[in-house]
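Could you join me in thinking about how sequence relates to backbone shape in a protein? We need material for that, and I hope you will provide a protein of your own picking. Once you have written the record down, we can walk along the chain together:

…
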Amino acid sequence: MVKEAFLAAVPNKKIVFVAADEKLPSYWQYSFTDGNCVISFIQICNTNDVFTAKLETLLPSQGTYFLMTRLNIKENQAKMDANLEAVKKAIKSDADWTIDQASLETVYPHVATDLKNSFGHIFAGVIEKVAANLAKRCADEMVLEAVQEATSNRTIIIKHNATQNGYWLWSFENGNLVISFKSITNTNDVQTFNFIKLL
């Protein structure tokens, strides 16, 4: 993924070295300008900085997510898949469950900048808490039947609502399970929310 992002940022396939007149934050600095990779330097020293620079934090990214976010989502995909499988098992579903990717892209701008690099990890964890809550409450057959009926699309939609009365709330809308959040904090609320009153 980093390689693809680098190639997309440097279509001219050129690396340009520039002796910088101004003060740089480090001896060597990467930038991506006019289809080139530009490496600026103050003086020839500490050349290992060129090798150790974390390109994934510097490269421009295509689409909604920063490159670091995309890497984190990829790194946590197996955990997300396992947690969706746990949701399926909790409500004794015959069909696979999914998380609505468009809803994740929509909420992404509302996630604090310092949490964006953990986006995949955070929402895989949220789905883990959804599965645990469902497993606990759907042990009752009447609740299980009501949840099965209310979630006919077998899709989890994530929404952001800055004015809601709790950090994390559940709702059932148009055959989907909707998890909304005010901010990324107190994620245990997802696991303890009593959704039975909504059925």
In short: Strands lie at 15-19, 28-33, 36-41, 98-99, 155-160, 168-173, 176-181. The mean pLDDT is 93. The chain is about 40% helix and 20% strand. The two ends are 43 Å apart (CA to CA).
